[in-house]
Design a protein that fits this description.
Elements: E1 13-14, E2 17-18, E3 20-24, E4 30-35, E5 44-50, E6 54-62, H1 66-78, E7 83-87, E8 91-103, E9 111-120, H2 127-155, H3 163-188, H4 195-211, H5 215-227, H6 236-246, H7 287-317, H8 323-341, H9 347-363, E10 373-377, H10 385-393, H11 399-406, E11 420-424
Antiparallel strand pairs: 1-2, 1-7, 3-6, 4-5, 6-9, 7-8, 8-9, 10-11
Length: 426
């Protein structure tokens, strides 16, 4: 049997509400500006681009339950934002309902007639502004790192420290490299690490030992240590998540030197990060201990602030697969900045963090149309993933996302009436 044009028609629907169609129109053309000048017989018409396409439809709902169908279609037309129109002749369109008129007549009982006008939703694109926001965010992150380094250099003090005291500071510095080393080595099985990155990892502790009395060099070494994450192959997501993992560095540490009793007489530990240098001698709770505690806390603060700044830039470069994921990543970094702002006492660092937070909210997520949005789709009957996606999008590109996002083991059997999450292309 040959395929006719009628076989190619699709059931019409808007936002999932089906209706019949009696007539369909398409309005299109070019946007223009006419230029006519006094005293001139010839003007010109300036082409300003294609018009947004319009889709006027004469539709209807019919049957014993037509009132329910009528109300559902009216509700779909009144919702804010764009929605998906299945056009019987033109296929799937993302549109905005501009007008909806309903007519019911006595002699046509059991039916409501609709006059619907849809326009394509189009896109909101500001490429220059987005690019500028990203570069400004990167510059603001550099300012945060510079201000944080200045604060570290002002507080960091190992002058006169010996024995357990100097070992405690060295332990805290080495704990930074231990955590970074563990993260990089864990990624080594998946991502190729450059030779320069491997060499840097081996030499960090030696550099710390040689520079332990020089605050400015310590700041540079710790910054370079965190930059080793950039050697994790070619995965921006891996780099982003590595910096996110460092934001909470040292948060469980008490700041008390190991082996020193607190006021209750109980021994305190350094925290959740491993100590690489054993501490044998005890230190009395004196000015020396306060000096060590302040220096260790300055190291923790510096690493957290560097990690936040680097994570902010990394999130702007790898904002996630969907608009919702990008927003969640942005809010996570913004919350970390808020936590820092509660304790920062240096004015320059405070202003730098505030500026970076503001620019982060401008840059992430990027303009919505460049990312997909996670939506819910509900199969009305048991089907396969391929059939469901083709019915919904006329494309199979989202199958991998659908299976992974919903933990689907058997893509040939999707249960009816069960909500599934999938990314809809922006």
């Amino acid at each position: 049997m040959s395929t006719t044009w009628r076989n190619k028609l699709r059931p019409a629907s808007f936002r999932g509400v089906e209706f019949g169609v009696k007539e369909a129109e398409l309005s299109t053309g070019r946007r223009t500006a006419k230029h006519e000048f006094p005293g001139k017989d010839i003007g010109y018409t300036e082409d300003l681009g294609r018009k947004l396409r319009g889709f006027p439809l004469q539709g209807f709902v019919i049957g014993s339950n037509y009132m329910l169908l009528r109300d559902r279609l009216i509700s779909a037309c009144e919702k804010s934002g764009s929605g998906q129109l299945i056009h019987p002749y033109l296929g799937t369109k993302e549109v905005v309902c501009l007008d909806c008129k309903v007519r019911e007549v006595d002699h046509d009982g059991g039916m409501a007639i609709f006059s619907l006008v849809f326009d394509e939703a189009g896109e909101l694109v500001y490429p220059a502004a987005t690019s500028d926001a990203l570069s400004q965010l990167s510059a603001a992150a550099d300012d945060v790192q510079s201000a944080a380094a200045a604060v570290l250099e002002a507080i960091y003090d190992v002058g006169g420290l010996v024995g357990a005291a100097i070992a405690a500071v060295q332990d805290k510095l080495n704990s930074v490299t231990d955590v970074i080393d563990s993260a990089v080595m864990a990624a080594k099985a998946v991502y190729r690490i450059t030779a320069s990155t491997a060499f840097a990892l081996k030499n960090m502790k030696a550099q710390i030992l040689n520079a332990i009395a020089a605050p400015s060099q310590i700041a540079e070494i710790l910054n370079s240590a965190l930059d080793t994450f950039k050697g994790l192959g070619t995965s921006p997501q891996q780099i982003r998540d590595a910096y996110r993992g460092m934001i909470g560095f040292g948060s469980s540490s008490t700041g008390i030197v190991p082996g020193v009793n607190n006021q209750s007489g109980q021994s305190q530990s350094v925290g959740s990060f491993p100590s690489s240098t054993p501490v044998i001698l005890s230190i009395s709770r004196t000015k020396t201990n306060l000096q060590v505690t302040a220096t260790k806390q300055a190291i923790v603060n510096y690493v957290q602030q560097l990690s936040i700044a680097k994570a902010a830039v990394a999130v702007s470069q790898a904002p996630g697969a969907s608009y919702q994921e990008a927003t969640a990543l942005r809010d996570e970094i913004s919350s970390a900045i808020d936590s820092q702002l509660q304790t920062v006492t240096d004015d320059t660092l405070y202003l730098a963090l505030t500026k970076m937070q503001t620019l982060l909210r401008v840059a992430v997520p990027p303009q919505k149309q460049t990312l997909g949005s996670v939506i819910s789709i509900t199969p009305d009957r048991t089907s396969s993933s391929l059939v469901l996606l083709y019915d919904q999008f006329e494309s199979l590109a989202q199958e991998a996302d659908l299976l992974a996002r919903n933990g689907i083991v058997n893509p040939s059997f999707l249960t009816a009436k069960k909500d599934l999450k999938v990314i809809q292309s922006g």
